[in-house]
Amino acid sequence: xxxxxxxxxxxxxxxxxxxxxxxxxxWQGLLRKAENPVPFIAGITGCQVLERHEDGLLREITVAGxxxxxxxxxxxxxxxxxxxxxxxxxxxxxxxEIGRDEQGATTLxxxxxxxxxxxxxxxxxxxxxxxxSRYFGGIVQPIVDTLVRSRSEVGPGA
Length: 158
What we know:
9 strands; seven-stranded antiparallel sheet; about 160 residues; alpha+beta; two-stranded antiparallel ribbon; 3 helices; globular
């Protein structure tokens, strides 16, 4: 499987200066993103949770106000969310993983795994992988920014 990956520290500016989120704060933000990705990802204009499961949920997202796609979101160990792509023939999974960098800051890694069909399309058309990489690479910082901002809105200890 072809994999694309980006990792950023979850650090932002708030009223008191730089703010690092701890892994639990990032996890809580990712749970909010799983329920409602609209504030986190430009282009997603709607989301409906279709089913809830002990280990996650099934949701349908609306992209650009028209295209719909179902995703089975599975929660793993409060550090990894896997978004299994049900309707997208080119993407297999999207991982959101919490880690730490060498300085001890909490990180968020977004990992995109192309399906066999997506890999074949990428081999036929190099612009497919390039545009997929550009799109997902472009959403990582806004996700981090929204995690930091939404944590400030929720407040400490929430």
